[in-house]
Amino acid sequence: MRKGEGAACARLGLRVFQDDDLDRLKAFFEAHGCYAAWVDVPHQGRTLQATDPAGTPLEFCATMPVLPRMITKFTRHAGGSALRLDHTQVLTPEVRKACEFYTAAGFRLSEYIAPAGTFDLRGVFLQRKGNPHDMVFFNGAGPRLHHFAYLAPEVHHLLNACDIAGELGYGAAVERGPGRHGPGHAMYVYMRDPDGHRVELFNTHYQIMDIENEPIGWDPSDHKISFPWGLPARQAWFEEATPFADVAICEPEVKPKPLTLESYLAK
Questions:
Q1: Mind listing the domains of the chain with CATH numbers?
Q2: Each residue of 110-169: pLDDT tens digit?
Q3: DSSP conformational letter for 235
Q4: pTM of the full predicted structure?
Q5: 159-192 burial string, b = 16+ CB within 10 Å, else e?
Q6: DSSP strand E in 28-165: where?
């Protein structure tokens, strides 16, 4: 966290298994005409910073100091009891290009959103650690950070987080949910932090580790899947996001038109 004149994201961080993977990543980015350079970062081993074809700033490392895990330190859990950072979602003007680039880098496509019978990708869910997604890309003006998500151990922690937000005067910052996703099937709640960044707490999702698991397609017009119960998200949830520092934002050729709460209530 750094103090700035406006809310922005410096870059997204990912960890690789071995130090040699960083060398392969650098060669991969450079072969695709993307920026990649070694940098010194406190509390991390050798670190690579790079940008993807859309300009999303990224950072990779293999080693860092190991601290005691808090997952079973139950007396230390507070608020929504966020246990670990699970995934990030990015708005990008070219979802297909993002999918092709990241799958070439070694990510697996677990789920995608496209109108039935087409390959008009509106969103893709990409994973490396055996759950539905580590990085998610949705169609929109970008690149911009839509949200980052933390795993909470139980559903009641999502409700507790909402109660605490209300008591502290941040009730209006609870933006969406609690609810259940179609893709991923997790229970969730989204809220804004005091700087306006969107944060998701969710309770977990299914595993997709077997090589036989084929990508699951979701039709955005099937609202029983988009939001299995409850109401759709507000327009701001689809359109507002955190810019990346000093990164130009491009509009998609076709602007998405999801069902929003405003349009749903206007019917």
A1: 12-61 (3.10.180.10), 79-266 (3.10.180.10)
A2: 999 999 888 899 999 999 988 888 999 999 999 999 999 999 988 999 999 999 999 999
A3: H
A4: 0.94
A5: ebbbeebeeeeeeebbbbbbbbbbbbebbbbbbb
A6: 36-39, 47-51, 57-61, 84-92, 108-113, 123-127, 135-139, 144-151
